[in-house]
Each structure stands twice: as structure tokens, then as C-alpha cells.
């Protein structure tokens, strides 16, 4: 199973949440990283990496964040991050974004930043390195961020509105719950008073000098680092860094950067939080621990054991849940960082309605069982196998780790003293630790994880369930009861049967075919008429991407059975395969880097999957079994139904669900085939129908096309012949999708409605749809129109009006079930500005057909398209998706010169013409959800 990334990230995150100055590591920095510190204190880290080729990522890291704000500055660290894009010494106004976008480096996608409690990080990614002037300009952007922001009165005032709307957008149910629990988790600490985005009263009214004072006090070279990773000459880049950044002055009386602590406590802290839009009641027990001061191999070893411990406990939780006899909807154990100086070990239970205390007892009992008796040898062996396999996969594909991933790790090295090793040294260290851990050592360590002090219990859920929340006394009573309970040690039966227990022989190849426009791809039709396309590549040393499709999907399902069709693939994916139930299959696949999963879409059904070379056979076995021996476990169905039932209890108060349902119904003109998650759905889902639908859709290999892209082994084709070639088929049966004309009514559909809200917010959706002829040029044109509108709304709605945090716009041209375009936008805003902002939206739309678009904007978008394609061409996922879509839609692949020629033909005139077609021929759907009252902020 492909859990490599989560395991590696989990291992590293657990140990290394340290701080900048007093924290350190005695594990040497990777010798491939050129690093240093200038006289002014600024640190730099430069690494050569060629993923992607001819690109580099530039990070500017500040070891400062919201925790350093004074009370009258609450929110200014985040405000300052926004201001970094609003004018500097060398780039006036929006000069940074304009300069970068002229070179195909896009705001949002490639240019971004974030502010946290303890750091602020800026990045400019995938910068073309062949343009030396661009490289120099990018370095000067980082230079200006250090201490040369303009911070003009006008720009500060303009940004207040943007921050207000970000504040409004981010006030989700989860955020509101967190605001209630943070004072308990962080009791007595400054963290309890900082939510990063800040106090709206301060955002609206702070005096200009306050922001400048924070900037001058904390944005300074001794708290900053420049990180550059990419396809660069490291020595040349180092000289540039020294030349450009050495002149930044360091204040003579620099304030000491201190770190906020969370006070220790012997008593258990307890807190509850409720929100009317909360979907689930969850109880979490958190054990707060200190972050080790020195990051050494001892800490790394503990970190690995923490990962082992949670992996084993979570598997036991899953087994418990799959019995469907528990009071829990979900159980989990995990470690997380909660501040620069502290971590927490967490045991969480999401409960069935009215069963919160019982769910907590189940979770605490399993944790106690593991603490008391430890793991069994088979659990340790399986965990070792899983983790080593993940690291094997990592080392095999080390050359495909991208620039941003390495830059993120170097950011952690600078901020948190997290060791940064070469892939080879990292592998040697971690795998050496994994292999040497004994059962006795792990079980002894498991007894030390749950401490009697610094405990916090938090209960969160919906307003309607809060009367059923347990009390502190009840929770403590359960903990004592479990600790004194007689328990039996964990036992487990092993299933050692093979995945496929019958002998299969490779089916013959009936004929071969070419793939239009992709000369290296080969097509094969097997004896059972299955259509195979293989594209061998060396983009990744050990990666194979797989997909498959057949036409039909849910379009061939009767309307009254669509609810069961919605769950059919989910049940099959969750029930196991062949001789293995859910847990048995998971255990069987331990150590395998292989996965494959079926889907049943609106108009197609098929598979998505991936593997390494060694486990291609396992992936093919999974595909074979999904056709030949799927399982439909009644227990899984009942668990799923219980989860749906719990979700429905609170969904009526969920504004997001109400908005989505309204959009879906409007876009389908209330077609009876429109999927809605409601009581009718729960009443009509049926396990037998779901199984029948699955078996009707995932059958007949002769009607499927199977696509394999990657570093395919020599034995690959023969294995495909063996496992795909032996899937049952009926060559005479060729299906197609049915067009049910699911589309908006002709003309305008306008739906405005009001909902009760905690925070007053209007959410707007507008979609223009219509028929059009499919062509590559039309597909690119509608995409470009969406990008142009994004640029225009960034300027007009976000920057000039301060009306929204951002307008999401997407232009798309579908071919199935018939060629049709969609131009959709959505955004949140202040209810008072709804009418004015909608006037702006329609003005910008109508301007597209009456006036030529801005030539510079169009050129920037075209450059970004060419740049993105150049990067994508070197990835297996691009080629798999391209072959999949082109084969499904019978669209030839465009060669590089053809693509560039097509882009060059798109100009102001062609965009204006297509915009006119879109606006004149489309039907529109406008859905606006507003608050019942203007209460809130």
C-alpha cells in the first residue's frame, strides 16, 4: 500500500518540533547543502536538485509569527505577510506579482506565503532558471521582504478589507470550535490569545505605525533565512546571495526572540465546545509533552517507536470499528505539535449519537490494553515491513523529490533544528533503527507514553448534542475504571492464503495498435479483447501509474437505484477482496507499494492505481480480484449507513451542504437524477442493489481500456496478459453512456435564499453553461477566459473593493456526455457588498465580449500555460491522464510544436470572439446564500 509519504512525514514530524536558537541537532547537515550565515545574521541554504528540470524554488523564512505580537498588534503578523505583495523598495505597488507573472510564475500557484504562530514563510516556486535576469529579480524580491516593504498608508487601508473578508471566510465551524477549546488546551499561555488572523477591531483600526513597528522590530536578518533549491549552479547562487543580502543592516539593539511556554499542570484540564454546524461529537484526550532540546539519534529512535506505537494502536482501533459493535464512528491515536516547545499525544473518538462516554471508554480501553500487555510479534513484524517498504520506495525515487519538498525540510532545519540528511543517510539511519527495535523495547516504551500529568480532555460537537456531553467527573471515572479493569491480551489470527489461489496463464495478444501522436506508447488487444496501452518512461526510477475506463457509469443505472450506485464502489473498496476481509487484505498488502481502486462515475467506470516495479504483479492481482472476486460485507454497509445517519442528524444546519444542494439542483434543473445527501438517500440505499450495480459496471474486460505509464519491468506485459487477460469478457457487448440532459433550464436561473449563521457571510455562485463544438482551441480559450477573470477579480473585487478574500473562477470544456462549456465562479463576501460586487462581476463578464482583454494579462497566462506544460511533460501522471483522456474522447495528442502553435494563435481577437459566444449562447445559474440577520461581524 502506498503509505510511504505519510510514514516518512510522520516519523520526522514527531521528533522535530524544536525551536530556532536554544534547540539544536548534533546530526550533521547534508553535505550537498551549501549553507552559511552572513555577518548580519542572515542564514542561507542552497541545494542543487533537478525535479523539476530547469526550475528553482526560492523560500524566505522568518522565525517570527503571531505569538510575538503585543495585545494591541493581534493579527498584524498575518497582515504584514499580505503587505509583502503590496509594494517594496524595488517593486512598487503590485510590481512583484507583475514581474513574476510575466515569466509564467503565477500568483497563488507558484507565489505564496503563510503565517503561523511561530513563523512566517514566503515562497516563489518553479522559477525558470535559464533566465538570469529573472533569477536576480527573484533574489531582490526576497531582499526587499527582509526589510524594505513600502507599507504605505494607502496600501495598508486597502488591505484591511481583504483581511476582513479572509477573517469572514475562515470562520468555519471547525475554526469556531477551536476558538472555544484553545483557552483550555493552552491555559495560561499566550497561544490561547492568538489565532493568527487576529482581532477584527484591531485590523480595522490599528494606526499605521503599529504595523511598521512590528515590521522593524521582528523582520530582521538574524531571524531570517534564504532557502534556494533547484537546477542551479550552487556556487554562483551563493555569491549572488552574499552580494544581494550582505548589505541588509542589523539593528544594534535587537529584541531577543523568546518562545511562549504552556504552563505545566497536575490536574486534568477539561473543556467543551459546540457549534450549530458541527457534524460529529468528538472527545480527545491529549497528553502534552516537552519538545527535546537536542535533536539526536536517541530522539529519532523515540520518534520511530512513536510511529510504531500509533500504527499498531490504530490498526487495533480499525479492527474494533469493523466489528460494528462499538459506540464509535471513528477512533484514532496520533502525535502532533501544538507549539514550538510542545507536542501532544492524542487519543480521539468520534461518537455515535448519545454515545460519547462509551466511545471514549472504547478508545481508552484499547490504549490501556496496548500499554499493559504491549504489541504481539506479528504486529511488530508487520509494522517493520510496512515502514521499511516505505523507505525503500523513498530511496528508489529520491531523484523525483521536488524542490518544494526539500525547501520545506530545510525550512524545518532552520526553524526547528530538524535534521536534514541526504536520502542515503536518512535511509541508513531510519531503516537501521527500524530493524534494531525489539518487541521488548517497544513494549517497555509503550508504558511510558501516557503520563499522569499535563492531560487535557476536549469534547466538541453540535449545539443540539451539547446537553449529552459528558462531564469531567464522568470522563475521569471512566479512565480510572479502565485502568483497574481486568483485560485480556490482544490476539490475532493470520490469513496466509495467496491473494489469488488459482493458477493463471498469460493470455495471448490478438493484435497491436499505435497510439495517435505518442510514438513510444504501444497498444495491445488481448485474447479476451481487453485493450492495453503501455508507455514506458524513466521519469521516475520506480513508479508505475495505472488507470482504466469503460463507458457507461451511473448513466446506465435506473433513477430509483442511483442512491445505491453512489455507494457501490465504496462498499467494494472497503470490504476486502477474494479470501480476505478488510483487515486481512490490509495485512496481506503490508510492505507492498501497490494500490488499485475502482470507481463508478457519471458516464464512465474504471480504476486508478499505482505501484513500484517490484509490486506491479500485486497491483494487477488487485485489479483482477475487483473484477472476479469483489466482496460486499454487510458489516461494512451497516457501518457506512451508521456514519451517514450520524451525518444527517446535523446536516440540516450545515450551510455548506445547503449551498451545494441548491447549486446542484439549479445546475440540473431539478432533474430527478440529481444526487442529494438527505433522508431519502439513507432510506433507499440497499446493499444488494449496490452489489448488483457494481457487478454490472465492473465487468467485461473487453469493454475496458487499461493504461500503464512508468518504469515498467521487462516482465510487465506478460504479467498484464496473465491478470488482465484472464478477466471474464464478452467481446460482443460494447456499452456507451446515456445522455440524460442534466443541465440548467434555458435562460436565467436565479436562486437567493437566507440561512441562520454564526458569522454574517454571503456566498455567491455563478455558472454560465452552453453547448459548443469541441476543439483544442475552444478548450484552451474557455480556460484562459477563466484565468483572465481571476486576474480581473483579484484587482477589482479583492484589491480595489476589499470585497472578498478571493474569487475562484474556472473555465472548462467537457466532451461527455456532449460538448459543453462551463464558466463558473464562487466567492464569499460581506452581505452589505453583495449587490455592488455582483455588478462588478457582470461588468467584467460583459467587458470580455465588448472590449479586447488586457494584452499583458493574456501574454502572462499563455506563458504560464507553456511553462506548466514543460514541467508536466516530465511526469508519469501527465502522460497517464493524457492517454486516458485522449483515448476516452478520441482526441489526438498535440506535439510540442503543435501546442506552441495553438497557443500562439490565441490572441485578443479570438478570446473576445469566444467570450461573445459564451456570453450570448449560455444559460446562467446564480445562487446566493445570505444570512438571515446581520448579526455577527
Keywords:
alpha+beta; seven-stranded mixed sheet; 25 strands; 937 residues
Termini gap: 47 Å
Structural class: alpha+beta
Helix content: 40-55%
User: Poorly predicted ranges (pLDDT <50, ≥5 residues)?
Assistant: 1-5, 7-21
Please indicate the percent range of residues in DSSP E strands (runs of 2 or more): 15-25%
**Which whole number gives the mean pLDDT?**
95
Give the strand order, joined by hyphens, for the main sheet.
14-15-16-20-17-19-18
Biggest sheet: strands, sense, closure? 7 strands, mixed
Morphology: globular
Computed over alpha carbons, the radius of gyration is 29 Å
The beta-strand count equals: 25
Number of helices, counting only DSSP H or I runs of 4 residues or more = 30
Characterization of the model:
The protein has 937 residues and is an alpha+beta fold. Helix content is 43%, strand content 19%. It is built from 30 helices and 25 strands. Residues 1-5 and 7-21 have low confidence and may be disordered.
Question: What's this entry about, in short?
Answer:
The protein has 937 residues and is of the alpha+beta class. Mean pLDDT is 95; it is low at 1-5 and 7-21.
What's the layout of helices and strands?
Blueprint: H1 4-15, E1 24-25, E2 33-37, E3 43-48, E4 55-62, H2 76-83, H3 95-101, E5 111-115, E6 120-128, H4 132-147, H5 153-170, H6 173-185, H7 200-205, H8 208-218, E7 224-230, H9 234-245, E8 269-275, E9 281-290, E10 294-295, H10 297-322, E11 328-337, E12 342-351, H11 356-373, H12 377-396, H13 403-416, H14 423-436, H15 439-446, E13 455-462, H16 472-483, E14 509-514, E15 522-526, E16 531-536, E17 544-551, H17 562-574, H18 582-588, E18 594-600, E19 604-611, H19 616-628, H20 634-651, H21 655-667, H22 679-684, H23 687-697, E20 705-710, H24 716-723, E21 748-755, E22 762-771, H25 776-800, E23 808-814, E24 820-829, H26 834-850, H27 855-872, H28 876-889, H29 896-905, H30 908-921, E25 923-931
Parallel strand pairs: 1-10, 3-7, 8-13, 16-20, 21-25
Antiparallel strand pairs: 2-3, 4-6, 4-7, 5-6, 9-12, 9-13, 11-12, 14-15, 15-16, 17-19, 17-20, 18-19, 22-24, 22-25, 23-24
Helix pairs in contact: 1-10, 1-12, 2-8, 4-9, 10-14, 11-16, 12-14, 17-23, 19-24, 25-26, 25-27, 25-30, 26-30
